[in-house]
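Researcher: Structure for this, please.
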Amino acid sequence: MSMNKVFATADEAIADIQDGATIMVGGFGLCGIPENLIRALVKKGVKNLNTISNNVGVDEFGDLWAAEALTLGGHNIDGRLVLERLAGEIRPKMVEAIRRCGEAFKTACLTNNFVRAEAELSSEVSSVYALFDAVLESRVLGVRKPDPRFYELACETLGVEPSESVFLDDLGINLKPARALGMHTIKVTDPDEALAELSRITGLPLTD
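Model: Predicted structure, token format:
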């Protein structure tokens, strides 16, 4: 017997959940907050739920990963080192746009990172960070996107109002709270389209 586990909406996914149910939920701890699920449960009005979640921090995740790797494969692998390698590629066009924006405006990088405090950044990443007036790291501040406080801290650090800011991110969940604060937001799916929009807002030539 096959079961369809994919639903179009969160409302459909929780349709059969009743008061007192036990649900296993991903998306806490390192992953963020499953806001659509929470919103759907509140809307449905179910009560007294028991929740099982993967609510662990970086160090605990590293220990759990290492224990499982040792048990299953006999390898001693620190899970924190695995997290440090989950990095996206650096896009030259975006780096050049950061440089040009930095010549005309204050800039900040807001990064959700999982690295150990003693971990060394690559020279490539360090050179990009150097282009910003400020780099706000979640592991240092103890707050991460999409928490509105993260965006507020960025504005306070730069001495600007949210309405004077433009925030770019590739995840819609990170853009919503920024937009709610009054920031201009741009979702980066296609770099060329994102830069064209940023150029329109700032008046800077960023797409040549």
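Researcher: Any notable elements?
Model: Strands lie at 22-25, 50-53, 108-111, 134-137, 166-169, 184-187. The radius of gyration is 20 Å.
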